[in-house]
Amino acid sequence: MPKTSEKPALELSxxxxxxxxxxxxxxxxxxxxxxxRANGEVVSADSMQIYEGMDIGTGKLPAAERIVPxxxxxxxxxxxxxxxxxxxxxxxxxxxxxxxxxxxxxxAGGTGFYVRAAIDDYDFASGxxxxxxxxxxxxxxxxxxxxxxxxxxxxxxxxxxxAIIHPNNSKRVVRALEMLELDGVSYASQHEGLATLGQAVxxxxxxxxxxxxxxxxxxxxxxxxxxxxxxxxxxxxLCEQGFTEALTAREAIGYKEVVAALExxxxxxxxxxxxxxxxxxxxxxQRSWWRHDERVRWVAADDGDVARMxxxxxxxx
Length: 317
Description:
Elements: E1 16-20, H1 27-37, E2 40-45, E3 70-71, H2 84-100, E4 104-109, H3 112-119, H4 133-145, H5 147-157, H6 159-162, H7 170-183, H8 187-193, E5 203-209, H9 212-229, H10 231-240, H11 244-247, H12 256-262, H13 268-291, E6 296-300, H14 306-316
Parallel strand pairs: 1-4, 1-5, 2-3, 2-4, 5-6
């Protein structure tokens, strides 16, 4: 089961306003508009937007379009490790600082686990920390034997956890092996217990709901726009800086596909279609993450009207 933190809940003068929803639902614009109206600042809970130079492919709000201060952007180099545990510390430090300055905290959530790490009463097991010998050992095992052998190793010692992790999701398989070895904790048990955690940070949750077929069209348009905005040049520049391996991580949708095209393993058109498919699948996972969270009050986002959505959320505050 997850560890319940013994640290006191973070005390804020006003609850954090949390905006969640799938990719291309309008979270970025709505969060910024809410922050503008509430004299607030935005903390981004996106596991890829933390990386410098990964801007177009992650949908990071350009600096010129930020009308309120934003946090959570550009805090790591693409080759540097990061974790939900580190984000928890970072986000709560941001919340405390923003609140102390008399501002309202707005959390814009693309990565569900980062949102829950920031808000919920979760004390991470030691394996979640960046930089440990157990992680390095299993990473080396993966490099030598491949993802299927890694999953088989987990299945031998924790079949329950292996059953809920896809063999290709090597990062999560390594995480499950770390938890067993470092803390004697089953990933499956931890995953089940997440739903019962209380909040360590006062927060109000709002979700943006978009019809799946409409969202599919938005995602396709968004990906086309990324290519027009210079995604290929962005990826090429990062590769020239030596970040190719970091960019091919499973989470970096939009980067690993372009790398494949640049290396001649597919056409750029095929890379574009692969990005659209991967993004649609990711959006589906994002919807599933929040679907059963009773804290989330849903706002229709089909029309893309930021002002109208902000009005509805304001009325619920």
